[in-house]
Design goal:
single chain, 258 residues, alpha/beta, six-stranded mixed beta sheet, four-stranded mixed beta sheet, 13 helices, 10 strands, 47% helix, globular, binds hexanoyl-coenzyme A
Length: 258
């Protein structure tokens, strides 16, 4: 499939999607988010893919929604033809593990798309922010919901109300990113993490992701019950028998479903 605004490749069991609109710092126009949704759907269907990496350029993961495109939209058109519900949320709905590799700007919708991924690994040059308020709007693709869950109320309010950017070090301290690495090491580090994930049992990795995401939706008692039932169900998997047998036999596991 030939894409115009993204690049897609596979390395072993890892799918890599690179946002590719350098002339606009990877601003998320409808064409790009449409292609992103298509690429994710293809990786979701592909049994040989166990983990996906979403990245941008060294200068920008994505500088937000495409402001020039958004400028002419009105309320009815956004309601009737809602790009966020149609394509953007494909990242949040993606069922396999997905890592955001962020270098440079992750602003507005760029920060929101990164937060829809399961975790973010950032380069030292990364800058995160929700500057929508400077444009006379607020975040519209999860920024007011996922950011406070990631960094707490104080910092989310600070970022969304002032529109300021935070650097990678502050983002790591706040819990938005899982690791910060030198820019030159970003892709190697992320690929190593993705390859490690892709060697696990895929259904178990997917269930783990589902359970962690569930913790943001339900209370503790319900969440722990969900976890326990899913854990119990995993004892019907060949991969559970293989994983535990491999440990007892002091060898590496070879999961069937991976
Ligand atoms: C469209 C954009 C863009 C954007 C940058 N460009 N960001 N085009 N939408 N979000 C374009 C510029 O117009 C310019 O094109 C080129 O990319 C390079 O950008 P510069 O501004 O010249 O680069 P620089 O001076 O290095 O500044 C980088 C920057 C700045 C700080 C990231 O570009 C910036 O502030 N961008 C907007 C960030 C933002 O407000 N994001 C939130 C968008 S709203 P030309 O053709 O002029 O060379 C949003 C809402 C999401 O995301 C809601 C989801 C539902």
């Amino acid at each position: 499939m030939a894409y115009k605004t993204i690049q897609v490749k596979t390395e072993g069991r890892v799918g890599v999607i690179t946002l590719n609109r350098p002339e606009a710092l990877n601003a998320l126009c409808d064409a790009l988010t449409g292609e992103l949704a298509e690429a994710l759907a293809a990786f979701e269907r592909d049994e040989d893919i166990g983990c996906v990496v979403l990245t941008g350029s060294r200068k920008a993961f994505a500088a937000g929604a495409d402001i020039k495109e958004l400028q002419s939209r009105d309320q009815v058109s956004l309601y009737l033809n809602d790009p966020f519900a149609q394509t953007w949320e494909s990242v949040a709905r993606f069922r396999k593990p997905i890592i955001a590799a962020v270098s440079g700007y992750a602003l507005g919708g760029g920060c929101e798309i990164a937060m829809m991924c399961d975790f973010i690994i950032a380069s030292e040059t990364a800058k995160f922010g929700q500057p929508e308020i400077n444009l006379g709007v607020m975040p519209g693709s999860g920024g007011t919901q996922r950011l406070p869950r990631a960094v707490g109320k104080a910092k989310a309010m600070d970022l969304c109300l002032t529109g300021r950017m935070m650097d990678a070090e502050e983002a790591e301290r706040a819990g938005l990113v899982s690791r910060v690495v030198p820019a030159d090491d970003l892709m190697d580090t992320v690929m190593e993490a993705a390859e490690a994930i892709a060697t696990k049992s895929l259904p178990v990795a997917m269930m783990t992701k589902e359970a962690i995401n569930r913790s943001f939706e339900v209370g503790l008692t319900e969440g722990v019950l969900f976890e326990r039932r899913v854990f119990q169900s995993q004892f019907s998997l060949e991969d559970q028998r293989e994983g535990m047998a491999a440990f007892a036999e002091k060898r590496a596991p070879h999961f069937k479903h991976r």
